[in-house]
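Known limitations

Structure tokens in this collection are predictions and should be treated as such. Users comparing against experimental data should check residue numbering before alignment. To illustrate the layout, the record for Lysophospholipid acyltransferase family protein is reproduced below. The input appears on top and the generated tokens appear beneath it.
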Amino acid sequence: MWENFHPRQVKLHLSESALETINRLQKQRSQAILLLGHYGNWELITKIPQFTNIPTQALYKPLKNRFLNYLSYKKRAKHGMRLLPAQHALRILLREKQTPSITLFIADQFPGNDNGIAVEFLQQTTFMFSGAEKLARQLNTYVGYVSLHPLNKQVWELDITPICDHAASTSEGFITRQFASMLEKSIQKDPSWWLWTHRRWK
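Generated tokens:
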């Protein structure tokens, strides 16, 4: 890991394929859901609005401390990212299903043993958050996997790998399992960039 590493001091670069994907979504005026994990400098996703005219939003969990919540919200929204409270996101997105948008989910949270979808992940059975998949299938959106890797100390590159073009045509669990497989490959390339302290197995 690099010392004194801070997302505000780092630039975001979109790969050629990521730019092509975003441009295509912009022309189609369609909805898209992008999935990523707690891997690499994921806070840089707040800079995606700089690269597109499509409304871009991400889910967040409001902090109990109102002042800290204000500071966190202000920092993450400064580049134009819209933040949706996680507990209201489904209702908001369904209400706005006719509006073109890009919605980002950090989807490797532990959903509880009675929730989510069980997948084989890092050589053990792991329950993965499936809310993003359920929403994508309801809205029939494009779904892609976002990966981030450093080009150097100052620049990180974001890439988008397609999972499906029309989520409603996929079988239940397909999107979540594809996401888990893609995240696993990212971790295997460089395990040091995954947030191992984020509890997933209980």
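For this record: The chain has five helices and nine strands. Confidence is low (pLDDT under 50) at residues 1-5. Please report discrepancies through the issue tracker.
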